[in-house]
Amino acid sequence: MNMVNSTSVTDFVLAGLGIHEDLRVIVFLIILLFYIVALVANLSIMLISIFDLTLHTPMYFFLYNLAFLDIFYSSVVVPKMLTDLMSQKKMIPFYGCMLQVHFFHFLGSTEVVLFSAMSYDRYVAIAHPLRYSTIMSYKVCIGLSLSSWVIGFSHASVHSIMTAKLPYCGPNVVKHFFCDVKPLLDLACTDVSLNYKLLVRVTGTLATTTLMLTVLSYVFISKFLTKIKTLQGRMRALSTCSAHFTVVTLQYGTAIFTYMRPSTEGSLDQDRAAAIMFSVITPALNPIIYTLRNKDMKKAFKKLLKSSL
Hints:
- By secondary structure, the chain is mostly helical.
- 75% of the residues lie in helices and 3% in strands.
- A 3-stranded mixed β-sheet has the order 2-1-3.
- Helix 2 packs across helix 11, helix 4 runs antiparallel to helix 6 and helix 6 (138-164) runs antiparallel to helix 8 (193-225).
């Protein structure tokens, strides 16, 4: 079916956050603050990882990728959200809406696959410290990183193409503050049961598989932690994983909550709240969590500040 001939909608209207008029400025400033923190903190991690030679290791290579993802992940949603908060007409062109769907799922799914790669890296660092640099070679790191991007792009393409091909001939108000698959499916004037099945099964398979791989890595990590006899050595090994584990819990919790539940009228408000978590708050928290729990990163950050002053 030709998309142009079957679709009369040329623009969508975003419902926004649904907040009271008096709270708009306060919410705008809070979201803007989180966005600035996300940009500055993640960019700082990227710069530190590049310029500090002591951080040219697999762990910081993956952290660089994560920081890059977080910058663009939040930028897909937040700038438009901020603009809409201060405007009356919350319009987005049809193709702009579909691009937002694609890049939101592309960057988000790339991130969850990258988490699995990072958990494997932490397992190798603890279980095979003497062979760490050999196992996690440059080629292996590049391969794991590229695999994350390719899987993420493929996953997003399935949803964005399937959503874009649907006919939209009636209401055009998206009950969300950005274009996402579930609220767009509610506007299609055709049977979307296949789309819902794809959303649950494809996204569910990706989320479940990457989560299981991450959990499996931590099961093996915990096994090796019990073999470390000194408490100090055990705590040192645990500290290398704690930041990653915290970030993974935040990301998977909100993603599974959003996409693994059936869509209902009441669930859309919950979806909005979850989306604020992983598009606004998590990208700002990720670099802070990694920096606060990482002595090498804090040392490198202080060194960079001294050299720039």
